[in-house]
Amino acid sequence: MTPVRLIARPLLATTFFFGATNALKNSEAIAAKAAKVTDRVVPLAQRVAPGAPVPTNPQTLVRLNAGIQLAAAAALALGKAPRLSSTVLAASLVPTTIAGHPFWEETEPAAKNQQRLQFFKNAGVLGGLLLAGVDTEGKPGVAWRARNAATTARKDARRLAKDVRREAKLAKAQIS
Q1: Taking the mean position of all CA atoms in its chain, how far away is CA 143?
Q2: Which residue, 46, 19, 109, is CA-closest to 38?
Q3: Which of 81, 63, 82 shows the shortest CA–CA distance to 130?
Q4: Which residue, 80, 106, 151, 160, shows the most beta carbons closer than 10 Å to its own?
């Protein structure tokens, strides 16, 4: 692991450690804010996965989200499955940000500005998580390997076809 990754991953995870522990401590108050989002997301989740046990209580969902964030942040900070953990954190950050920083609903200019600032800070963190999610640590990913193998196979097939045509011409010339 490069020194940059060694430093950047734990720094990126600190936001989630702080936010998730705060959510666990204040889950009742946060659940009231989260209800606007959970009331829309829960029916969608129940339609997508009809047999899955989807919690409907906003406080339970806040705690569940906090637990997921803590686990994924720990994995990211330790460098264990960093692509998966950063993707999980990115997915959990979207509803958290929408529920926690709805600047579009604020009427007071100072509060609106503060919520907007937090919203866009989270958007910046989301960008970092997306970058971490696609970081292959300098090693080629599966998609690149597949494209490279296809390109190599095409080149080999062209070369083989050319060699076969040349050998056929030589064989025809020897027979004549």
Answers
A1: 17
A2: 46
A3: 82
A4: 106
Structure tokens at 26: 């204040």
29 with 36: CB under 8 angstroms? Answer: no
How far from the centroid of its chain's Cα atoms is residue 158's Cα? 39
- Three-state DSSP class for 53? coil
Tokens 């910046």: give the residue: 124
Determine whether 166 is exposed, middle or buried from the number of CB atoms within 10 Å of its CB (0-12, 13-18, 19+).
exposed
Nearest residue to 90 via CA among 63, 65, 108: 65
Phi-psi region of 137 (alpha: psi -120 to 50; beta: other; left: phi over 0): left
Asked whether the beta carbons of 90 and 133 are under 8 A apart, the reply is yes
What is the C-alpha R_g of the chain? 26
| Per-residue pLDDT tens digits of the chain, which is 176 residues long | 788 888 999 999 999 999 999 999 999 999 999 999 999 989 998 899 888 898 999 999 999 999 999 999 999 999 999 999 999 999 999 999 999 999 999 999 999 999 999 999 999 999 999 999 888 777 887 888 899 999 999 999 999 999 999 998 888 888 87
Residue 42 CB neighbour total at 10 angstroms: 16
Contact 55, 16 (CB under 8 A): no
Helix axis angle for 27-48 and 58-78, nearest 10°, is 90
